[in-house]
Design goal:
403 residues; globular; alpha/beta; 32% helix; single chain; 19% strand
Length: 403
């Protein structure tokens, strides 16, 4: 079960230190899992990031960037590999950028994309009407039809090896959580509708997180009810974070600060993996698919760039390179980041070819507020050179400086 929550910051979950109780279901899963504290995505927007997760390739190699450029249908994906090994694959996605318009449906036996499905479509309608439609409707008050359809798909395929990918667009902007979950995010202590305070963006975002956590709880409960949970590899992550007043950005991912590129990453499979395990090495989203295959004893394809995280879960990776690279290429400014152990260097390349570096010590400055590029010169020079070398190896000059 691969659960990807769009736009979910790691630091908004209790299992990552958040002081609000808005993610009890994810937090409970985390106590039975290996949890990665320093997981980074390759690109802080939906299509390139999901493409990197599914193909285990850096964006400059899979080419599916920016949002709107389709995934190369010839590339191997996690779904294609699992299908070749006998898995029945289903996907329920609510972000059109990872839908069939962009080739993400390849390798799935059943693929439902919210943006593409019409309720008058005969295939979709026929399948929905084979379900217990009363149960579906009853659940919609505090659920969504895609979660319900995913649960029904589990019922339909529970007696065979299956791969389920569920992708929720919450808590992506616009933040519109159901009132019940908004009250969880910011209790009104009995206030009437007339005198409830005006919710700010942070509270609205938390309400969306609480809502999505509830939906994940429904998936987990279904696995429990079906006696499947402990025989299932359950992976929870996100495609990118969200700026909520961070770095003078009101909403949305921007650049390569941790608010945009650091995400939760949780692996639950108590029959094979440690429980209540924290991993503090730096890892990348291109490592997720190789890890899933390794845990399932499936060889890693040559295409996959990432490395299996399984040895880290068992403290058996002394030579692990604690490094992550993130990129975002935009029309007027390009961003590159290298996270190496406790330090992170950022490079901005502007459209006038000017370059600007920043350096942060993440453990002591998680908000990246104190730029140490001028004070930690030895570390800065080393990481600047490492990042520059990586860029020079992987990009043509025209790709990093607009003329």
């Amino acid at each position: 079960m691969f659960l990807i929550v769009d736009t979910l910051r790691a630091d908004r979950l209790g299992c990552y230190g958040y002081d609000k109780n808005i993610s009890p279901n994810i937090d409970e899963v985390a106590t039975q899992s290996a949890v990665f504290d320093q997981a980074y995505v390759q690109w802080a927007s939906s299509l390139p990031s999901h493409a990197s997760i599914m193909t285990s390739l850096q964006p400059h190699l899979h080419g599916a960037f920016p949002n709107g450029n389709e995934l190369n249908p010839e590339l191997l994906t996690l779904a294609k590999v699992l299908k070749a090994y006998g898995y029945t694959n289903g996907a329920f996605v609510t972000n059109s950028l990872v839908g069939n318009q962009y080739n993400f449906e390849i390798g799935f036996d059943r693929f439902f994309d919210l943006a593409q499905v019409e309720y008058t479509n005969s295939t979709f309608s026929a399948w929905v009407h084979t379900l217990n439609i009363i149960r579906v409707i009853d659940q919609l008050q505090h659920s969504d039809i895609y979660t319900e359809l995913a649960i029904s798909w589990i019922d339909e395929n529970k007696d065979k090896p299956m791969f389920l990918w569920v992708q929720w667009l919450h808590p992506h902007d616009p933040y519109e959580p159901p009132p019940k979950f908004l009250d969880i995010a910011a209790p009104t202590n009995g206030a009437t509708d007339a005198d409830k305070y005006e919710y700010d963006r942070s509270v609205l975002y938390d309400g969306e997180v609480a809502y999505t956590d509830f939906l994940i709880g429904q998936i987990v409960d279904k696995l429990k009810e079906s006696n499947l949970l402990d025989n299932t590899l359950l992976v929870i992550t996100s495609d990118h974070g969200e700026n909520i007043y961070d770095h003078n950005v009101g909403k949305g991912p921007a650049g390569v600060y941790d608010s945009s590129i650091r995400v939760p990453l949780i692996f639950r499979f108590p029959k094979q993996l440690p429980v209540n395990k924290r991993v503090d090495q730096v890892v990348q989203s291109i490592d997720i698919s190789p890890s899933i295959l390794d845990i399932l004893d499936i060889p890693k394809p040559k295409q996959f760039q990432g490395n299996s995280l399984k040895p880290l879960m068992f403290d058996d990776a002394a030579d692990w390179q604690s490094v992550a690279h993130s990129t975002m290429l935009q029309k007027r400014r390009n961003f590159f980041a290298l996270r190496s152990d406790d330090w992170k260097v950022i490079l901005h390349v502007f459209d006038d070819k000017e370059k600007e570096f920043e350096l942060y010590h993440i453990p002591s400055d998680p908000g990246e507020l104190e730029n140490r590029i001028e004070t930690e010169t030895a570390i800065a020079d080393s990481l600047k050179q490492a990042l520059t070398n990586w860029i020079g190896t992987n990009f043509k000059p025209v790709e990093i400086a607009y003329t």
